[in-house]
Amino acid sequence: DIQMTQSPSTLSASVGDRVTITCRASQSISSWLAWYQQKAGKAPKLLIYKASSLESGVPSRFSGSGSGTEFTLTISSLQPDDFATYYCQQYNSYPWTFGQGTKVEIK
Amino acid sequence: QVQLVESGGGVVQPGRSLRLSCAASEFTFSNYAMHWVRQAPGKGLEWVAVISYDGSTIYYADAVKGRYTISRDNSKNTLYLQMNSLRPEDTAVYYCARRNYSGCLDYWGQGTLVTVSS
Q: Which of A32, A55, A87 sits opposite B106 (nearest CB)?
C-alpha cells in the first residue's frame, strides 16, 4: 500500500499569511493526488485534483504543485474561512490512501 | 445540485451486522463509480471501498475485506454497504462519495455514524 505522510500535523497561522502543507508518498504516484478541506462536523470538500488542478468554485488563493512523491498545497493569503483540516489523498492505485491531515489553526 | 444522502447508521453490538444506504440524486448515478470513506471519531479519513459504475469492479481496504460488501442498484440510484462481523474499531462516520471523471471524489454525503459497542 502507498503511504501518504503530511507535514506539519498542526499549523498556527494568521489571516493573510502564506501557508504551505507538504505531502509525501512512499512511492511514485505521478500526479494522481488530490487535496481536500474538512471543517468540523462536515464532509470533506475537494480543492485540488491531479496535483495542481483547481476544482471548480475553489478560490484561486489555493494552489497545488508536485509530482512523483512530493507535493504541496499552498494558500497564498489565509482567510478566516480557511481554518480547517486539510488532507492529501493518492488515487494512483488501490487501496486509496489519505495523509493523516494538517490542522490549520488561528495564531 | 448533486445530492448524496446516507442512512442506516446506528449503535450495534460487536459481531452484528448493519447495512448502510446512500441515495443519489441530481446526476446520472449509473455513469459514476462510487466510494465509501470512513472517519473514526477525532481521526483522519480512511478509504473503505469502491464499486465501478456498473458494479463489475470492486475493491476493498484490507481492514474490511471479507466482512464488508459494497453494492449498488442503478435502478434505484442507491449505493449500499453491507457490514458484517462488526468490531469496535469500525466505529466511524461513513461517507459515500462520487468519483468524478478526473478520478477523485468531488461530491460527498453528510455521513452516517456507526457505533459498535456492547
A: A55
Contact B47, A34 (CB under 8 A): no
Count the neighbouring beta carbons within 10 Å of the beta carbon of residue A42: 12
- pLDDT greater than 90 at residue B84: yes
Per-residue confidence (pLDDT) for residue B56, from 0 to 100: 97
Residue B58 to residue B49: CA distance in whole angstroms: 7
pLDDT digits 0-9 by tens, A60-100: 999 999 999 999 999 999 999 999 999 999 999 999 999 99
Paired sense of beta strands B3-7 and A97-98, if any: unpaired
β-pairing, A10-13 with A102-106?
A: parallel
B106 and A43 within 8 Å at the Cβ level: the answer is no
What's the confidence (pLDDT) of residue A106? 87
Residue B117 CB neighbour total at 10 angstroms: 10
Backbone angles phi, psi at A81, to 5 degrees: -75, -10
User: 3-state DSSP call for residue B103?
Assistant: coil
Which candidate from A50, A87, A91 shows the least CB-CB separation from B44? A87
CA distance B13 to chain A (A): 24
Residue range A91-103, pLDDT digits in tens: 999 999 999 999 9
